[in-house]
């Protein structure tokens, strides 16, 4: 068994006292069992899934077999990807291979897609044909874009005309190329769906990044933010101050603009109430829901969009022994759909699963944290932070009163913190 001291050190260095607490307490208790030999299958190697895969191995002292199925060759981070659009970072800067998960932690990484899951038989079928049996399945498939909520969008995106780039990768570069090709004096417009959606401040950070690029190279151009929500959904006063002071006359924000159709021929977006808007580069974000495999498995039992879970263990309320993490989860109050939060879900779920498989008590009082940094240009950053505690009486997480908060304003020092945050969370998730 892993030495108690080693586990304490590992947990302490990552700020995981409350997550690993169950294992630590139990290991100190007479009669506690070593982790059982068991098979955990993780679907999706993003912020939630990769973290959970690594931490099941760590918390079980490598005794539990972990297989991770992920179609992409490497992890490409959405956080920081807006800087690729702004031109100050490259795709290589935000890419990390999966090799350390395999080499250092003994995770079996399978490059494939899970095509279907049979919760009764506890097997998953890979797109390439083989099946994988599991004792516990961890599902962190991220989000799917609901194409049909905006008429014409699916075809416009398939033709490469109207892009989203809401999953970082080749599409991020394609959108960057559209911005580069745009003439000075042109208009970039981003539409935002009604919340909840992946990364509340993400679209507003993107507007800053595009404006930062325009300010340096195409100063007569405009950035239009067309938001279906009544107002900016995250760090509102801070973003509005940045737009007014750093990008006066360039960035324009309009709330309550709910897009329902696009015309790719004329690059026009249509709204429920307001007049149509034509732009040179259209970045249309439709409504989002849990990743397709979660929906297809019948786990999206909140408005047929998100997955309800028991928050102590992240086990689905719809299927036993399937734990759902990250953006796919029907969020607890004030819980953002963020990479930081998905990473925390990954650790909390890993601790609960190892405890369950080992006959230990599940930590009854887990705590989660979140920080979302937003770059207002290539160097200056603002943040929002919060701490979330499990409230047993309500069986959900709630933000701790008075915890967290927002920056007073953008600074280069926070820019350093943000970049260090990114490197630390990539290491914590994948290395
Ligand atoms: C532009 C932008 C900026 C952002 N900035 C920040 C930020 O600064 N800070 C922050 O905390 N968060 C940020 N986010 C949000 C963050 O990216 C997400 O919240 C996070 O990725 C959610 O993690 P996840 O594990 O749920 O999903 P993902 O990280 O998307 O991982 C899902 C994985 O599942 C895989 N998958 C899907 N279906 C299957 C299947 N059937 N079989 C196998 N694999 C499958 C996918 O290939 C993918 O790798 C940002 C997002 C965007 C778009």
Describe the fold and architecture:
The protein is an alpha/beta fold and 431 residues long. It has helices spanning 4-13, 17-28, 47-59, 81-86, 99-103, 153-158, 170-181, 202-217, 236-246, 292-296, 339-358, 412-430, and strands at residues 39-43, 65-69, 74-76, 95-97, 108-110, 114-118, 123-126, 131-133, 136-139, 143-145, 187-192, 222-227, 251-254, 259-263, 268-271, 277-278, 281-284, 288-290, 309-310, 315-316, 322-324, 367-375, 381-391, 396-399, 405-406. The chain has a 5-stranded parallel beta sheet with strand order 5-2-1-9-21. Strands 13-12-11-17 form a 4-stranded parallel beta sheet. The chain is globular, with a radius of gyration of 22 Å. The two termini are 22 Å apart. Bound molecules: flavin-adenine dinucleotide. Flavin-adenine dinucleotide binds next to helix 3, helix 4, helix 11 and strand 22.
Radius of gyration based on Cα positions: 22 Å
Q: Give a list of the ligands.
A: flavin-adenine dinucleotide
Give the fraction of residues assigned to helices. Answer: 25-40%
Main sheet: strands, sense, barrel: 5 strands, parallel
**Overall outline:** globular
Number of helices: 12
What are the segments in which pLDDT stays under 50 over at least 5 consecutive residues?
Answer: 1-31
Let me know the average pLDDT: 92
> How far is the first residue's CA from the last residue's CA?
22 Å
Strand content: 15-25%
Number of strands: 25
Give the structural class.
Answer: alpha/beta
Describe the strand arrangement of the main beta sheet, using strand numbers: 5-2-1-9-21
